[in-house]
Design a protein that fits this description.
There is one protein chain. The chain is mainly alpha-helical. Helix content is about 45%, strand content about 5%. The protein has helices at about 1-15, 30-40, 55-65, 75-90; strands at about 105, 110-115. It has a two-stranded antiparallel sheet with strand order 1-2. Helix 3 crosses helix 4. The longest helix has 18 residues, at about 75-90. The protein is extended, with a radius of gyration of 21 Å. The mean pLDDT is about 80.
Amino acid sequence: MLTTLFICALNLSTKTGYAQEVYQHISHTDIYDFLDELANAQVITINSAVKPFSRMLIAEKLQEAEGKTDQLNSRQKKELAFYLRDYHKELVPGKSADKRLDLFYYKDTLFTLSVNPIFGFSLYAND
């Protein structure tokens, strides 16, 4: 019994873990619509049939579009700047990156945590 436990512990301790991709949920249709719009305007190339996209892929495509701002109209430039502030965290490995303001943000070599509250309310009235 002790030998079996030792072999199992030795086997588990020699396994290495691999980082996982963080995917943007498909319910966030705004970023997907914007990427599709850029792809239709031939600013970027992306396979829209395979979703969800990883946050890193979205950041790379936004950065690719940033290099072609002469092909964008003013609304698209504003949206690109807005989305780059959120997805820039994936590209730059530091806390001092030009990113959107987070309630709490932590990043090291193994872990990233970003906390952003969502506020809302509902009002119901009955006569």
